[in-house]
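Write out the 3D structure for:
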Amino acid sequence: MTTSLPAPSSFGGLLRAWRTRRRLSQEHLAAEALVSTRHLSYLETSKAAPSREMVLRLSEPLGLPLRERNQLLLAAGFAPHYTQRPLDDPALSAAREAIDTVLGGHDPNPALAVDRLWNLHAANPAAQRLIAGVHPDLLAAPVNVLRLSLHPLGLAPRIENYGEWRAHLLARLRREADLSPDGALHDLHRELVAYPAPAGSLRHVPDGTERPPIVIPLRLQTPAGGLNLLSTTTVFGTPLDVTLSELAIESFFPADRATAERLRVLSHGR
């Protein structure tokens, strides 16, 4: 269970809830933020008002995302510190070019850019080829890649290790939801859990004799044959914009030579 965060109007309650969510004692957080435990207690009980610098200082050891740092500032009566621009804003042109370069350079291997809610912002041709043929409703904006993966009318019938891949995605989404106050992530998790699985896809249970994999692959059927894909996640290293801080590039790599060859075949439309 996770702590329900109070409304942003209560700085002290919001600070206390984030500390509890991060499982930090007052002593630990005070030491990390270089403030006295007494002063931190006063902040949490609203006996003292924080400065703008104090809010930002406390945000760091709490590991707050930029969006939540802005919310903490607003709760304390200050303007947001971090900008939030749409991805097509001219100020983010260099970042967009970097994303396009990474996605384009990864072809014929699939890669896509997603936001904090797993909504699709860009995909290279290889990724677009893999999602071709799913139900048109799943491709209406905003396209959610987790919904696209696990929905019965999406990629689910093509995923050979659906049970394993589903468990991986749901566990990852649950961790992200537990670290965030955004109810949208919990709503998405509940939606995905309720999807019916393809017949027989959840029957396999490891018997202890199988060699454990080094990572959980995505095994996907395509017109060129089965693909065995490994995935990695790339984020911007030092973002100061909320939009950039929440973008991630999910890249898939062939786990064997047969997959690499089949991806090349798909890229040439054969």
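The beta strands are 111-114, 120-123, 218-222, 225-235, 248-254.
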